[in-house]
Design a protein that fits this description.
The chain has about 500 residues and is an alpha/beta fold. It contains 19 helices and 28 strands. The mean pLDDT is about 90.
Length: about 500
């Protein structure tokens, strides 16, 4: 056997998680399912397991039968049958599921059962051969008196970790999540690795208590963070930036504290940029090792969740897809009574971002002449940090386009979102375009690139905006022109799952 194939076989058989091993063999497995077995029949592709299924230890799932006793009579005789376990089922230890059996939704198979016939939904079965003992409702009614609710460990505080007090999309989302948790009765505080300076200082301290570790670099914060975690038992931690998450997970492992990690970027985009060969393999291995130590990993959309599972071979129940929350009331209240910052008589296009290559401002500049030709009174406004060398190059280039205004960082960007005519997102890549949802709080039309798949869910072509492929200035210009013509827009888009987010902190 080829040595590579040998080690590959060893990895899948003994080191991969049981659920990833099952998928590798061809078993069809739904979301949020747990599997505790590694032994499968010779036809794993005949097995389908639904969502929220729990398969406990030493369970056997058979897809064929026959044997020499039968083959003595009929030499080529064999029996094959698909096995289906539907959503929300529980398969007890040492149970055996025979070929051709379907376990109906919400059913319970008692430990040691041999299931030879299909089980109706919401049934409890047991025995050899398994028989219907009662319904799930009857089971609950009979055993409710024996239910002893266990005393959950109370989480006293949730600490949000920040690298510094610079403003960015991830930091704004963290504050939104913190506000939401506070409304639900959680005690939330912030831990800043840097000093008590920065654009977010007043914003955070007006609402939350904050501890500053006063470290110049994130990595230097490890000893102080470990000491902080040791001094604060009964706590859980939350991070929304990659380098902070690395430090946070390491400190959490050493102090045995739970940490929830939100991933801000697509892992494929992050790892493929300027990284290749052995270095990429090492980084992926380190990330995989670290992420497996997190309590929960929050992906910003389903596409990102699938990438995380594929790239880092994480257990299905470790990663949840939760679209970013938008506090509509807060966003609108922040803009209430604000003055229009734009000059009258112009069609004001707006982008809000910290200028970087990924934000596609250069594509926007290339699209602008076509927009200006179609809308002579058009004006482009860009709000966000623009102090980097790359940003300054773009600003210098835009000087020839007198219709560009770079406003720099604004502590309250919502007044700009409220008064603009069209919001533009020319990005090459995004984790989740939170700023689009914020613009939609004011019923602004949107012109965007398909920088992430969820864009096609947020924007309904011709209704509340238009979208086009990335790196296409002409198409972006067309979207901007058409978006400027939209009137009477009412955005009702919402995909945020509050209950799923709250479950991450329990």
């Amino acid at each position: 056997m080829n040595p590579f194939n040998f080690f590959k076989l060893i990895y899948w058989r003994y080191f991969a998680s049981p659920i990833n091993y099952a998928k590798h063999l061809g078993v069809k497995v739904g979301d949020y399912t747990t599997i505790s077995i590694r032994d499968w029949s010779s036809e794993p592709y005949l097995v389908t397991i639904g969502n929220h299924v729990q398969i406990t230890r030493c369970v056997s799932i058979h897809t064929h039968g026959g044997g020499n006793a039968i083959r003595k009579v009929i030499p080529d005789f064999d029996v094959f049958g698909k096995v289906t376990i539907e959503d929300w089922c529980y398969i007890g230890a040492y149970s055996q599921i025979m070929p051709g059996v379907t376990i109906g939704e919400g059913s319970l198979v008692a430990a040691g059962s041999i299931v030879t016939k299909s089980v109706p939904p919401h049934s409890v079965v047991g025995g050899n051969p398994a028989k219907i003992l009662c319904t799930i409702d009857d089971y609950i009614a009979r055993n409710e008196k024996f239910n002893v609710p266990f005393r959950k460990k109370v989480i006293v505080k949730i600490y949000f970790l920040l690298p510094d007090l610079s403003a960015g999309g991830a930091e704004r989302v963290s504050i939104t999540i913190a506000r939401l948790l506070c409304k639900e009765g959680y005690n939330v505080e912030f831990v800043n690795f840097g000093f008590r300076v920065g654009e977010m200082l007043d914003w955070i301290e007006s609402e939350f208590k904050m501890t500053c570790l006063e470290c110049g670099r994130v990595l230097n914060a490890i000893p102080k963070l470990i000491a902080f975690m040791k001094a604060h038992p009964d706590s859980i931690y939350f991070s929304s930036r990659e380098h902070v998450s690395i430090v946070g997970i390491l400190a959490a492992k050493m102090t045995k504290r739970p940490i929830v990690v939100r991933i801000p970027n697509m892992p494929k985009n992050k790892l493929s940029k300027g990284i290749a060969g052995l270095k990429m393999i090492v980084i992926k291995f380190i990330n995989q090792w670290l992420l497996k130590s997190a309590k929960i990993i929050v992906a910003q959309n389903v596409e990102m969740r699938n990438q995380l599972l594929e790239y880092y071979r994480l257990p299905d129940d470790k990663v949840v897809a939760i679209n970013n929350p938008v506090d509509v009331d807060y966003v609108r209240a922040s803009a209430e009574g604000s003055k229009n910052p734009f000059r009258p008589g112009e069609v004001n296009f707006l982008n809000v971002c910290n200028i970087a290559y990924s934000k596609g401002i250069d594509v926007l500049e290339s699209a602008w002449p076509k927009v200006k030709a179609a809308i002579p009174n058009a004006h482009m406004n860009i709000v966000g940090r623009n102090t980097s060398d790359y940003a300054q190059e773009l600003i210098a280039k835009a000087q020839s386009l007198s219709e560009f205004t770079f406003w720099g960082f604004q502590s309250n960007p919502y007044s700009f979102l409220k008064h603009c005519d069209v919001f533009v997102l020319p990005s090459r890549m995004e984790g989740f375009p939170n700023v689009i949802l914020e613009a939609q709080c004011f019923n602004r039309p949107v012109a965007s690139t398909t920088c992430v798949a969820v864009i096609k869910d947020i924007i309904q072509q011709g209704s509340n905006g238009y979208y086009c492929n990335i790196e296409d200035p002409d198409a972006l210009a067309d979207c901007m022109i058409k978006a400027a013509e939209l009137k009477n827009i009412e955005n009702k888009y919402s995909m945020f799952d509050k209950e799923l987010l709250l479950s991450c902190f329990k």
